[in-house]
Structures are given as C-alpha cells and as structure tokens.
Design goal:
The chain is mainly alpha-helical. The protein contains 3 helices and no strands.
C-alpha cells in the first residue's frame, strides 16, 4: 500500500486514470479496426498494415525525437514502403479484375431435372456464358 500513497490526492488519481484509460481505449479501438479490416480484406492485408504502422512509428521517432539514422536504415524503410505500395497496387488490380468478372457474367442456370444413372453434370453439353452487358456498338466507327 505504500506505493499507492500518491493516489491520495484527487488530481493524481485523475492523472493516473487518464494514463491508464486513454491508451487502453485507443488499443481497444485499434483492435476493433483490425477485426473490421480482416472482415473486409484478408489477414495478409492486416499484416501489411501492421508493418506500415511500424514504419510510421519509426519515421515519427526520427522527426519528433531527432533520432539519428544511417543510410542502411533509410534503405530498409524505403524498401518496406515500396513493398507495401506494390502490394496495394496488385491488390487493387486484382479486386478490379474480380469485380469486372462479377459484373460481366451471369450465373449459369441450374438443371431442374435430377441426373439419371452415372451421368455427370456438364458432360456432352455445350455451356455458354452470356455477358450481361451488350457488346459495344459499331455505330460511328
């Protein structure tokens, strides 16, 4: 109990509570954001953003606290940022291709009749995928 004597004053209690509650609340918000990020994207994206957080923390310490850095350390930061930018670009390109594929094609209709014997679905049938969007017009070409 001797260590907690400083909590006898109300101002010190408020200071102590703020020192504990504010970082705890921020950590809780970060956790909620991370869960939402994994829901929307993937765990790899969360890992990339975790590395981005580390890079931002390092740059913050360099700018605010005047930490000295070597050329090798700057090269590492630049390499990490380049990797994150390449990942983001490839991820966006992949998502664009996926969304384009979803917009352009319909789901194939399912057969209502049960299969007879050992016949496998799709055998001997010509399956064509019909685009939803009509082909571009050749008027004015």
């Amino acid at each position: 109990w001797h260590e907690l004597n400083f909590l006898a004053e109300p101002q010190e209690v408020l200071h102590y509570v703020l020192l504990v509650l504010v970082p705890g609340f921020l950590a809780f918000l970060l956790l909620l954001i991370e869960v939402q990020l994994v829901k929307v994207t993937s765990s790899l994206t969360l890992s990339v953003f975790g590395n981005l957080k580390s890079v931002v923390t390092i740059i913050f310490s360099i700018v605010v606290f005047g930490e000295t850095t070597t050329l090798l350390q700057w090269s590492g930061l630049l390499l990490a940022l380049t990797g994150m930018l390449v990942y983001a670009r490839l991820k966006n390109k992949s998502m664009a291709v996926d969304s384009l594929a979803l917009v352009r094609y319909e789901v194939l209709p399912q057969d209502e009749e049960p299969l007879e014997g050992n016949e496998e679905p799709g055998c001997g049938e010509d399956v064509q995928i019909e685009p939803k969007v009509p082909p571009p017009s050749t008027v004015g070409a």
